[in-house]
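stage 2 :: seqdesign
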C-alpha cells in the first residue's frame, strides 16, 4: 500500500489506485499523513479543515470524516501493511510504514544524498525527484505544507544540478534546470545555475539571454534588478571566464571587480536616490534594506569561505557586521549603521590593501542602498571614490560604469555638480560599451538633477533622450522613471497636454509591476493634481520644496 502526496492526494494498493475521501476528508487524510507517525490534535485538524473559522458543529463533522477514513482503511485491510488510525486523548494518530508515503520517502532520499559521494547522491536525487507527479497536495488547501514540499523539490533540483556540473555533465544539468527556470523565472538561484550550465556547455549566448530575461522579469514583477551573485556570473561570462564556471556555485572564486556591474541592485530601477529632499523610485524601509544587504553580502562571504579564499577572515568580519542589520526596526538599523560605519569603511580599505578590490567593491555596492539616506557622509563618498579607483586600476569597464553611477547617487544630495560629472562619465562609458540600459540610467539621473536645479528645459532633453532608448533597452523599469521625469519637466514648462500624455504612458508602462506603478502614479498625481492617483502613489517620490519632483534610476 502507498499514499501519494507529491501531486494529487491518492492511495494505491497492489491492484491499483483506490478511492480516497474528497474535499474535507482529503484534508484530514493529508494532515494525518504529513504528521509522520505523530499524533495530530483536534484543534490542529479543525484549523487544517476550516481555517480560523470552524462552524458550530465542526467537531462532530470532524469525527464523521475520521470514521469514514477508518472504514476505508479497514476495507483495504491496511493493517497488514502496518497502517492504522488510532484515537488519542487529544486527537488522532495515523501510523504508516516508513516507505508508504511518497513525501516521506522524498525527504529521506534527499537527506541521504547530502551525506553520500557525488555519484551516489546523483542517483538518490534522481529517484527522489521521480516521485513527483505535480505540485504537492494538489487540490488540498494545505498551503503552508504544500509550499514547504514544493520548496524542498526546488532545493533538490538545484542540488542535483550542482552535482552534475561538478561531474562535468553540463548538458545534463542544463536539461534538468530548463523547465524549472522557465517555471520560476524570479528564483535567482535557479537562474544562476541555469546560466552556469549553459555557459559550461559552450552556450554563452543563451546564458547571456537568460540573464537579460531574468532582469526584465524581476524589474516588471518586483521593481528590482538581479542580485549580486547573479550579476557576478553575468560579468564572468562577459569577460570570457564562463567556460571555467563548471562546478557548483560554492566553488566560484574571484568574481572580479565588476561584481556589482550592469544590473546590480544598488542603483537599479527600484533603488533611486535622494537629491535635496526628493527621492528615487523606492528606498524601502531600513529593516528591509538591512535584511537584503545582509543576505546578499553574506552570500558572497559564504562563497569566498568555501573557496578557501585567503581573505576569508576579512569577509567573515564583513558577514558578522552585516548580520547586525537584519530583522531590526528602521530606527535601530540607522543607529546600528552609524556605529558600524567607521569599521565598514576600514574594512573596505583593508580589502583593497590585501589585494582584493573585487571584495571591496562588492562591499561598497551592497551597502550603497543601506546608506541611501546617509549619502552626505564624507567618509562614504571617499570610500566610493576608492572603489571607483579600484575598478579603473583593474581595467574593469563594467565595474567602472557601476561605480560612477553609484558615486553619482551618493553625491546627488550634497554636490550635484560632481554628481552630474559622474553621470556624464557613466553616460559616455555606457555608450562606449554599447549598454543602452546603462545609457538610459545615466540620462534619467541627469534629468533628475536638472529638475533639482530648476532647469526643466535641460531636464526635458535628458528625459526625452532616455525615453527614446525604450526600444533598445531590456529592462522596462527605467522607461517608467524616464517617462515620469519627462512628464514632470513638461509640466514645469507649461506643456500640460504633453505632461499628461507622458504621465499616462508611465502608468501604462508600469502595469503589472506594483512598485513601478506607485512611482508612475506619483508622477501623474504631481502633474495633474489627482487625488485618486495619490492614494496609490509611492511616498518616496516627494517634492523638493520648490514645486519640482524627480525620479532617478
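stage 2 :: out
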Amino acid at each position: 500500500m502507498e499514499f501519494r502526496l507529491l501531486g494529487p492526494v491518492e492511495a494505491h494498493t497492489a491492484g491499483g489506485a483506490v478511492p480516497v475521501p474528497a474535499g474535507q476528508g482529503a484534508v484530514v487524510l493529508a494532515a494525518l499523513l504529513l504528521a509522520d507517525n505523530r499524533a495530530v490534535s483536534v484543534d490542529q485538524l479543525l484549523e487544517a479543515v476550516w481555517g480560523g473559522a470552524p462552524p458550530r458543529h465542526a467537531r462532530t463533522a470532524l469525527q464523521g470524516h475520521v470514521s469514514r477514513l477508518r472504514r476505508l482503511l479497514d476495507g483495504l485491510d491496511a493493517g497488514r501493511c502496518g497502517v492504522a488510525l488510532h484515537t488519542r486523548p487529544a486527537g488522532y494518530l495515523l501510523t504508516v510504514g516508513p516507505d508508504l508515503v511518497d513525501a516521506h520517502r522524498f525527504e529521506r532520499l534527499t537527506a541521504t544524498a547530502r551525506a553520500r559521494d557525488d555519484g551516489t547522491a546523483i542517483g538518490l536525487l534522481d529517484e527522489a525527484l521521480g516521485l513527483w507527479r505535480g505540485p504537492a497536495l494538489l487540490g488540498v488547501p494545505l498551503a503552508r505544507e504544500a509550499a514547504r514540499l514544493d520548496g524542498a523539490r526546488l532545493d533538490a533540483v538545484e542540488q542535483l544540478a550542482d552535482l552534475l556540473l561538478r561531474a562535468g555533465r553540463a548538458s545534463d544539468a542544463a536539461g534538468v534546470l530548463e523547465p524549472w527556470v522557465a517555471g520560476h523565472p524570479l528564483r535567482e538561484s535557479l537562474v544562476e545555475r541555469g546560466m552556469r550550465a549553459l555557459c559550461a556547455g559552450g552556450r554563452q549566448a543563451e546564458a547571456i539571454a537568460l540573464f537579460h530575461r531574468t532582469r526584465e522579469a524581476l524589474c516588471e514583477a518586483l521593481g528590482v534588478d538581479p542580485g549580486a551573485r547573479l550579476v557576478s556570473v553575468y560579468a564572468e561570462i562577459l569577460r570570457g571566464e564562463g567556460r571555467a564556471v563548471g562546478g557548483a556555485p560554492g566553488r566560484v572564486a574571484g568574481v572580479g571587480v565588476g561584481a556589482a556591474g550592469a544590473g546590480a541592485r544598488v542603483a537599479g530601477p527600484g533603488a533611486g536616490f535622494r537629491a535635496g529632499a526628493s527621492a528615487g523610485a523606492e528606498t524601502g524601509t531600513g529593516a528591509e534594506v538591512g535584511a537584503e544587504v545582509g543576505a546578499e553580502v553574506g552570500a558572497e562571504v559564504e562563497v569566498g569561505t568555501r573557496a578557501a579564499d585567503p581573505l576569508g577572515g576579512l569577509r567573515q568580519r564583513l558577514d558578522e557586521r552585516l548580520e547586525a542589520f537584519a530583522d531590526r526596526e528602521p530606527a535601530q538599523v540607522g543607529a546600528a549603521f552609524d556605529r558600524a560605519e567607521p569599521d565598514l569603511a576600514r574594512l573596505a580599505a583593508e580589502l583593497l590593501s590585501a589585494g582584493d578590490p573585487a571584495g571591496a567593491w562588492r562591499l561598497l555596492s551592497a551597502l550603497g542602498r543601506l546608506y541611501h539616506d546617509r549619502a552626505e557622509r564624507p567618509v562614504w563618498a571617499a570610500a566610493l571614490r576608492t572603489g571607483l579607483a579600484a575598478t579603473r586600476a583593474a581595467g574593469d569597464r563594467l565595474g567602472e560604469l557601476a561605480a560612477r553611477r553609484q558615486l553619482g547617487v551618493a553625491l546627488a544630495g550634497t554636490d550635484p555638480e560632481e554628481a552630474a560629472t559622474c553621470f556624464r562619465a557613466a553616460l559616455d562609458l555606457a555608450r562606449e560599451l554599447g549598454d543602452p540600459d546603462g545609457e538610459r540610467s545615466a540620462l534619467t539621473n541627469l534629468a533628475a538633477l536638472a529638475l533639482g536645479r530648476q532647469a526643466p528645459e535641460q531636464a526635458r532633453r535628458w528625459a526625452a533622450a532616455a525615453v527614446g532608448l525604450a526600444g533598445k533597452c531590456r529592462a522596462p523599469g527605467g522607461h517608467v522613471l524616464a517617462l515620469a521625469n519627462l512628464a514632470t519637466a513638461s509640466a514645469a514648462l507649461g506643456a500640460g497636454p504633453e505632461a499628461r500624455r507622458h504621465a499616462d504612458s508611465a502608468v501604462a508602462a508600469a502595469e503589472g509591476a506594483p512598485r513601478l506603478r506607485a512611482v508612475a502614479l506619483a508622477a501623474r498625481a504631481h502633474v495633474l493634481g489627482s487625488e485618486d492617483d495619490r492614494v496609490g502613489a509611492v511616498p518616496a517620490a516627494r517634492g523638493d520644496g520648490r514645486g519640482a519632483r524627480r525620479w532617478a534610476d
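stage 3 :: structure notes
- Strands lie at 2-4, 10-13, 16-18, 40-41, 84-88, 91-95.
- The first strand starts at residue 2 and ends at 4.
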